TrEMBL record:
Matching Pfam families: DcpS_C (PF11969)
Protein name: HIT family hydrolase
A single GO molecular function term of this UniProt record: hydrolase activity
InterPro entries: Histidine_triad_HIT, HIT-like, HIT-like_sf
HIT domain location: 11-115
Extent of motif Histidine triad motif: 102-106
Keyword terms, alphabetized: Hydrolase
Active-site residues, as the UniProt record annotates them: H104 (tele-amp-histidine intermediate)
Length: 115
């Protein structure tokens, strides 16, 4: 998959639009959260802005309020699913393991996490 992946051919845009099924955890006007298909923790949720930004750097530059909102949604998911502890990860760029170029926060929670 190319890093130049455009919004019109974006897996997470299709999930947000309901064209590809997902296990929804949370939704509001700007933000969507769903279970990761290949969980790396007991609870592994992806939180995404409905608008397409390639990565967290672009989101921070163009819509910092949405980035803050994603952190709040992550905290709320971790309170509902567990005791409020969570890890928040944004893989950014190919060398960091980013495979979907629609910014997504990995929320890992539900258990004691490995270092
Ligand atoms: P990253 O490697 O940081 O780009 O994360 C992409 C994540 O998307 C991976 O953890 C995948 O397991 C997850 N993923 C890929 N396809 C789907 C899907 N259809 N539904 C839910 N999660 C997905
Ligand atoms: Zn997208």
């Amino acid at each position: 998959m190319s890093e130049a992946n455009e919004a019109n051919d974006c897996l997470f845009c299709k999930i947000i639009a309901g064209e590809i099924p997902s296990a929804k955890v949370y939704e509001d006007e700007t933000t969507y959260a769903f279970k990761d298909i290949n969980p790396k923790a007991k609870v592994h949720v992806l939180v995404v802005p409905k608008r397409h930004y390639a990565n967290v750097a672009e989101l921070a530059e163009k819509d910092p309020a949405e980035l803050a909102h994603i952190a709040e949604v992550a905290a709320s998911i971790a309170r509902d699913a567990y005791n409020g502890s969570f890890r928040l990860v944004f893989n950014t760029g190919l060398d960091a393991g980013q495979t979907v170029f629609h910014v997504h926060a990995h929320v890992l929670t539900g258990e004691t996490l490995d270092e």
